[in-house]
Every structure is written in C-alpha cells, then in structure tokens.
Design a protein that fits this description.
The protein is α+β, with helices and mostly antiparallel strands. The chain contains two helices and three strands.
C-alpha cells in the first residue's frame, strides 16, 4: 500500500478530468449555506465498524466545510 501511495504522490502534478471540470464551474456562492453539494456513496462490500455500508456527504460551497453521515441503508437519507 505504501508503494501505491508513493506512486500517487509522484503523479500529483497530473490533473484529472473531473478536477478540470469542477474548477471551471460558473456557479459560486458568496455566503455560507447559500449552495450545498451532496452525494451518497455505497454500498460498500466491507461495512464500517458500526455496520454502515453507505455514507452521505454534504459540502458547503462557500466554506468547503464537509459533513459526513454514515448509514446502514440508503433509505436513511
């Protein structure tokens, strides 16, 4: 695993397609909670220690503050 992380560090000067698209967004907020981004991830094959297989993230566009909520079922959203 350390070898993989080292390879990622050496290739960090490369810009991925998603990053390029995200940085060209014309939408920007001027205050907290004006624009929130959210996403649900999962299901994962290996559950967390609490048994969660999904997680829900919310990002405030202005501050980039991120909340993460672990869920056992997608319906908990």
């Amino acid at each position: 695993m350390a070898k993989t992380l080292l390879n990622l560090a050496l290739e960090s000067n490369k810009i991925c397609d998603v990053c390029t698209l995200a940085s060209n967004s014309s939408i920007s907020s001027i205050k907290h909670f004006e624009l929130l981004h959210s996403d649900i991830w999962g299901p994962y094959k290996v559950p967390s220690l609490s048994g969660a297989r999904y997680f829900f993230t919310v990002v405030d566009d202005f501050s980039r503050f991120t909340w993460t909520f672990y869920m056992h079922h997608k319906s908990e959203t």
